[in-house]
Amino acid sequence: LEQLSHWQINGKIAVITKQDSGSASVNWQERQGSYTISMYGPLGANGIVMTGKPGHVTLKTSDGKTASAGSAEELLTQQ
Questions:
Q1: What secondary structure does DSSP assign to 48-72, as a single string?
Q2: What totals of helices (H) and strands (E) does the chain contain, helices first?
Q3: Rounded to two decimals, what is the model's pTM?
Q4: Is 42 helix (H, G, I), strand (E, B) or coil?
Q5: 12 or 5: whose pLDDT is higher?
Q6: Cα angle vertex 70, ends 68, 60, to 5°?
Q7: pLDDT at residue 3 greater than cutoff 90
Q8: Distance between CA atoms of 39 and 47, rounded to whole angstroms?
Q9: 79 - beta bridge partners?
Q10: Predicted local distance difference test score (pLDDT) of residue 41
């Protein structure tokens, strides 16, 4: 993947625990160092969109909340 400057992955993920389960549709696009990762629940509910480039990442939720950080790891740790 490091040699590609533009790619996209579409799929679905599922999480199952002893108490609960859920699934989400995922769309991940990379373009010359910038990326957008979108995840949505069934029927497009409760979505999040993470956009980033080196040194800056933003997370937007379906309820209008926004958070930013210097890296995806830092942002996910905050959230």
A1: EEEEEETTEEEEEETTS-EEEESSH
A2: 1, 6
A3: 0.81
A4: helix
A5: 12
A6: 25
A7: no
A8: 5
A9: none
A10: 86
* Each residue's pLDDT tens digit, 23-69: 999 999 999 889 999 999 887 788 999 999 999 999 999 999 999 99
- Are the CB atoms for 54 and 33 separated by under 8 Å? yes
Query: How many CA atoms, within 13 angstroms, populate the side-chain half-sphere of residue 12?
Result: 7
Residue 6 CA to chain centroid, in angstroms? 17
The phi and psi torsions of 43 (rounded to 5 degrees) equal: 60, 25
User: How far is 16 from 28, CA to CA, in rounded Å?
Assistant: 22
Q: What is the C-alpha separation between 22 and 13, in angstroms, rounded?
A: 9
